């Protein structure tokens, strides 16, 4: 079983074989992503694997850089500018800025330029009544214009087509007649949900991803076959749920942004194994720190997400918030001469000054190198040598009157404080008491920064899982296959609605079972709905719905479940108000094999022996001595008091003074404050 997480700089590969976890990290080949994937997979022994699970940010990167195929957009006449207007609201930073513009608007970098957005004469009302029949001659004329423009795909989103998609289906037939085999996505298939703009943007993303991932998937499958792989390929969606590659390519918009959610899935699976159900996940890489929350063993899932401000996608996604804090965060000076860290990043090219690749600004990595925490000769599994002199020169160039020692010390404190602020904001956003939650520290820089956060934020402990530098890739071998369906229908939850609700659930479940082809006992079906109180505008998502026939008792249970869910999320309960369902959802869950973490060596009577001792500078007024351990040398129940350093191939854990670390049964490092 192999999991692959394709990032913008590196591709992480984990292989599970014979109870052992093999990790491989290779550079991502920009423009030919599959080459890096195949190189890492071969090194991990893909020919002997039976399952290949894949996640990538390739789609997101294509959207951010606008390296997109040329797409045509068809909509109801008079509505082609919905992709320019979005939902007509600004971010907080743009409220008082007269120059602010949407990044994807016609004044910026549109996904589909206005000349490729064509209106078609037709109209269906909100109740499904055909007000204006589809004008096929007019549609053919517009399609011929798009053909002359050389479009590579078509996205279709007609007003109210979520109620009746016949016009869209006919347009898809006309696309085939006029443009041949050009891929065509229609919103009534892609996202049959209310709210025109989100449905339109989702359909455009689907059309783009259908082309991008279509070509990529062909090359990946051919390369894996040449490497001797004969097993099944799964793609992860934006909630790190798996689907066979054929099923995933039927709804490619769901895999546009799969990588970050895998870390949350890995935390959830590993947390279940060690008995920790309340977790704040912190994935600290080179540029950003991604936060997510697991409550009672469940992650927070959203029904939509944004790729850029107001660029919406109607897909299930793990709720993740990012801040500009990572190993590459730039150390600077503000107008008052004080040290700042981030949110700007040196990235991987040129990278931190100590990389020796032309970077001249100091970063968090340079900070920890000068402190003595990082080993200059064994960074990134020995693939990169760090130059302490270049890091020193970068700090010396800072325009501040502070002495060198304080520059480094304050850079360390600011880097830690930035992440601590992110943890606090995450707790406030989710309404949780951080004292009841553990910090799961992963990503290459997570174990280096997160333990120090415990001195600022009152979390229960900081846990460094096995293989933290590739932990997100382990999330891809920690998930089930999940297939989803959803339909919009505005229905008041009352006894008169039992038949309509039952028919909706039955129709979606039948289609999912036909699509899967699995035996009944292999699939677990779950139901839920999004609803709101009478008079509200925003829905409460994922309210549980009962299995079986929908009768009066079942509808009453749905109402009661809504009030319970609403109270859990808002702290309020309004049983006197009626409840209206907006979107009905069904999930088919197919259990698959998951990673089992090997046990750490059994406990021993003697304490662990450090490989060497290092001088840690600038943490206090005077240098302090810290023992340095190799993680592979540690046994269960070993205890180490800070300051101390624990090294492994792709990460370094830094335990600050006043903390104690204890090794868990799977080799996890559990760090707590002693006071």
UniProtKB/TrEMBL annotation:
Residue ranges annotated for the Hydantoinase/oxoprolinase N-terminal domain, each copy included: 2-178
Any GO BP: glutathione metabolic process
Listed GO CC annotations: cytosol
Residue ranges occupied by any Acetophenone carboxylase-like C-terminal domain in the UniProt entry: 497-658
Domain Hydantoinase A/oxoprolinase: residue ranges: 199-481
Annotated GO MF terms: 5-oxoprolinase (ATP-hydrolyzing) activity
InterPro entries per record: ACX-like_C (IPR049517), Hydant_A_N (IPR008040), Hydantoinase_A (IPR002821), Oxoprolinase-like (IPR045079)
Signal sequence residues: none
Coiled-coil region list: none
Protein name: Hydantoinase/oxoprolinase family protein
